[in-house]
Every structure is written in C-alpha cells, then in structure tokens.
Amino acid sequence: MTIAAAPALAQSNDPNRTQAEIDCLNRATAAADCAEDETKDGSDGADSAATGAVFLPALIVDLFPNPVGGGQAPLPTPDPRRDPASDALPPPASPADAAAIQAAAPGGPIVSPSDLVATEPPRAVVGDFVPDEVLVTVDGDAVQQIAASFGLEVRSQRQSQLLGTTLVRYGIPDGRPVGVVLAQLAADGRTTRREPNHIYSLQQATAIVNYAFERIALDSKEASGENVRVAVIDTAIDDTNPALSGVIADQFDAMPDVPIEARDHGTSIDGLIAGVGALKGMAPGARIYHARAFEGGKSSMDVILAALDWAASQDVRIINMSFVGPKNDLLGVACRNARALGIVLVAAAGNNGPKAPYGYPAAFDGVIAVTATDAKDGLMQQANRGPYVFLSAPGVEMVAPSGAGSDVVTGTSFAAAIVTGAIANLLHAAPDRSADNVEKALADTARDLGPEGRDNDFGYGLLDAKAAEAAEE
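The structure corresponding to this sequence follows.
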C-alpha cells in the first residue's frame, strides 16, 4: 500500500517558532520566501511538485495539514457547538431554519455558552488527500456497477460497523480530479456519502519528572484503570518497552502492507495512559487495544475508519485519537455512532497555533477536544484555539516511553492521552458512568484557566481528576 497526498506546503510545529513564522506556514498561499524555506520536518515542496504526490517520509510527528491550493474551495465547517445529529443535514437556509433544526435536535453532549464565539470565522482544515481515490458508502450490491458507470476501479471494500453500510475505496485510473469524480457520484442514488480519502497527521510538537499527576490532582499511588478497555489509534508500538509490559491486550494493523519504520509516538501515548514501572501512566491496569494506523506521521481516512471499526468491535469504553486532519463527513458519522454506542472519544485539539483552522476529529460534537498546558498551567504556544476546545491537560515537556527507552515530548497528542488515562480512572471507580456523565463531570469540575468560564484557549479549564471522580453520577 502506498499513501500519497496532493502537494502541500511543508510545515513544522517547532515550539521555538515565532508567531510570524506560524502565520506564514498557515497561509493557504505562502509567499515564495516562505514556501522555499524547507523545515526541519524534512518536507520538501519542490520534490513533491516534481512527482505530483507527497510520499510519506520517516516519522513526521509534528505535522498539521496545510490548506491545499489549486483553487479548491474550503470544506464548510459547521458550528461545533450544535448537535452532532445535524451534521447529516444540509446547512440551514436562514437563521430561522437553523433555530428550528436546533430545537428539534435530540439531547447531546455539553455545548458551549451561547455567547462563546470564535475569534475568527471558523474554517475547516482542507488537508492533503490521496489524489487518485475517493471513499464512497454504497447501499446494496452496486459496488461494481458504480465502478463501471463512472470509470473507476474498486481498490477495497468492506462492511463498516460504525458507518452501518459498505465503504468502498474507488481508484480514479484516468487522472480526473477528485472533486470532479465526487460531483459525478453525487448524482447517483446508489451512493450515500462521498468523500476524499483525506490524510491525517499525528500531533506531537517536540522534544521532567512527569508532573501530570500533580497538576490534574490524581494520586499516583491510587491511580488505576484496572480492566478498563481503552483503544488507541496511532503508530506502531514497541511492546518490548518495559513501560508497556502486560499493558497491551490486543493489536490491529490497519495498514499491513506499509512497512513499520517508527514506533515512538504510539509507545508514548500508550505509556502515558497505562504505563507501568518507572514510567507509570495515568491509569495502570487499563487494557490497551492498540490499532496501528499511522506511518511517517500520516494516515488516510480509509485506514483510520478501519481502525475505528476494529476498536468499536473490541467493546472498548474509550478511544484515544491523538491526530488531526480536515473535516470529513465519514469520520463525523463514525464518531457520532461510536458515541451512540457509549464510547468516550478523546482527541488532540491540534498544534498549529492560535490562528489555525479547526482540527478534526476533535471539533466534532461528542468528541472531547484536549489542548496542552505546561507545568505552570500555561497554554502551549502553538496549540489550536477555538470554541471546540473542551479541556486542558498537561502536555508540554513530559517524560514518556518512546521506542525502547524514553523521551521528553510535547503536544496536544500527549495531553489527550493524559485525559484518556484520567477517564479510565473514573470508569474504574464507577463502571456504570455513561459517556455523557463522564463529559459533564469533566466540564463541571475543571479548574478554570484564562477568562472566566469556558473560553477558546483552555476550554472549560484544567482537568481535575479528583473532583471529577467525586462528582455525582
């Protein structure tokens, strides 16, 4: 399997970058002096343009997808405060229509206050995608007929548990643009959803005793996630690392045809959640169901969906998603249906700076979007901002298992892992807690940081595990 993406500007989340450099990297069309500055991530735009595709290099754990040029319109971004069920509907034609939809929507997770607005108009992250593929859901047995009708080839198909239908990965052998093929398929009633095969990126920012226990009010001696089933979708792991001894309940490789080159990021995430020994995680005793879905810091939508389906089939209580990419309707449906199964979803908010677009899956309703703070509860400089940010947790310069040893890591990826571990503690103490109750307890007990109340930087505030556990069910 070869994953390639449409050309995009190189980008790094180096915490030492100035705001001007971050702004330069975030522009949809960068000036020449920005575009020609090869970053330390090793991405080279010239090589990409020469081949027509960006092939995945060695692990790029710092990347956040850039908007793709070429005249493509950005994907529409719904207000992340509204009910997830409305994501399946077309945008309302008027404010009155919007109010009617909201009034009819079923109860869902906590929403932000009505006066909380983004500092800039929301924009979806239009990230890289596989340039000669589309993902389509098909009801019935018309998979091959659709391929013949539109000059496509079936590259893979499977029944998706979370999507509730057949997911088909069609190849475009004649070079038509993805947007053209999606428009053509939209007129065919045999297809229900049609999306690009988007590329997603892990959210690590760089490399001291782990200060997370103290900051989130979790007693390291009492911490336990014993027998709580947690799924992690990430890179491969080094299961010989002593911190993961006896931690991994099962593994699934969603990209078996891609050679494994790096194991650091996934090892760190699993270790922060449930590590044992010298590098103790937040919830020792938790059972980790690990899905490998990233290589070179990248993955595609079909791979991530396969990993999510596998995770849901393992009867897990929590799914940790320490990655970010563009809004994709298929991913939104999968997250909504996983939440309907009672699974708590935790995701990294993103590492692309205060002016960055929303990052997904974190910005979907029903997903706990986590930003990163340091040992003094200060916000990580390059963290994403916006009304979708739900909770803050330690994620700056933390010691974590990495490969065969350990490393100092920074990023919203790792803050998400801290929250996942804390939730495992809650579920260990009270197994009957629902996903809605967990979310409410976290919001109600978070220690307010920044402006009073929920804000675009810290969300509801810093995770307080002790207070959340004491909150009424």
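Confidence is low (pLDDT under 50) at residues 1-15, 25-125.
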